[in-house]
Specification:
The chain is an all-alpha fold. The protein is built from 12 helices and no strands.
Length: about 290
């Protein structure tokens, strides 16, 4: 019975995410005490023999698939109309991205940590929240899920219409430079990953009882706000899997010309957020109430 209770407490996961992106990190039922969690080992090859490792990868695949399916379909619906007044408009696109992240992080936080974004995975890896094999596996499954999600949308829209509407691919809009696009991606991803770290910080939860337990809400809201600001510049990437999945299925020159921006920018932004978190946020002394 004791072993069974332990299995439940870990979410049936022998190798749980050290800093899950959901309610597990901020339970009001836990005592307001704090111990610094040990960093994840760089290599944890024993994970490869655990079903929980592959279950987490499947969760990342399904979540990214659903994310691309809903968001790219929303983009298609806006672009196909002659007037945005006839559609949900840019605000609707931003809500689709932010709302799906909120829902999917909530659903997958207890299984995989709810990353759904290679940049988030990269930032958490730099902060030693997960091992290298798990980080690589997550990124691969996220990219595959994104490709499948964009592929289903192309099947609905048809090859010609999907191509004419740019397939939801990210590129730097006319009137902006590549530097503008890169900067927008760096800052946007920094905001997202910084929010992830702040919303799931167990030290802050233990110190400040007023911190909400629903971490997916601020994360989804951060995605929404970044999209409102940067859709006119790059279409808003801040997620390399989302950008690559759409680019592969769209597969036209405009989708590849600036594609490097949607990997370099998010990874730099995630790295800066991880550095800021480790140097500034984690350095704040803990005072139990």
């Amino acid at each position: 019975m004791e072993a069974k209770e332990q299995d439940v407490s870990l979410g049936a996961n022998k190798f749980p995410e050290r800093q899950p992106l959901g309610i597990a990190a901020q339970s009001q039922d836990e005592p307001k005490d704090y111990q610094e969690p040990p960093p994840a080992p760089l290599f944890e090859f024993s994970e490869l023999t655990s079903w929980s490792f592959y279950r987490a990868g499947i969760a990342e695949f399904i979540a990214t698939f659903l994310f691309l399916y809903i968001t790219v379909l929303t983009v298609m619906g806006v672009v196909r109309e002659s007037s945005k007044c006839k559609t949900v408009g840019i605000q609707g696109i931003a809500w689709a991205f932010g709302g799906m992240i909120f829902a999917l992080v909530y659903c997958t936080a207890g299984i995989s940590g709810g990353h759904i974004n290679p940049a988030v995975t990269f930032g958490l890896f730099l902060a030693r929240k997960l091992s290298l094999p798990r980080a690589i596996f997550y990124m691969v499954m996220q990219v595959l899920g994104a490709i499948c999600g964009a592929g289903v949308v192309k099947g609905f829209e048809g090859k010609k219409r999907f191509g004419d509407l740019n397939g939801g691919a990210n590129f730097v809009a006319p009137g902006y430079t590549k530097g503008d696009g890169l900067g927008a991606e760096i800052v946007g991803t920094f905001i997202l990953v910084y929010t992830v770290f702040s919303a799931t910080d167990a030290k802050r939860s233990a110190r400040d009882s007023h911190v909400p337990i629903l971490a997916p809400l601020p994360i989804g809201f951060a995605v929404f706000l970044v999209h409102l600001a940067t859709i006119p510049i790059t279409g808003t990437g801040i997620n390399p899997a989302r950008s690559l999945g759409a680019a592969i299925v769209f597969n036209k020159k405009i989708g590849w010309n600036d594609h490097w921006i949607f990997w370099v920018g998010p990874f730099i932004g995630a790295g800066l957020a991880a550095l800021y978190h480790q140097v500034v946020i984690r350095a704040i002394p803990f005072k139990s109430k």
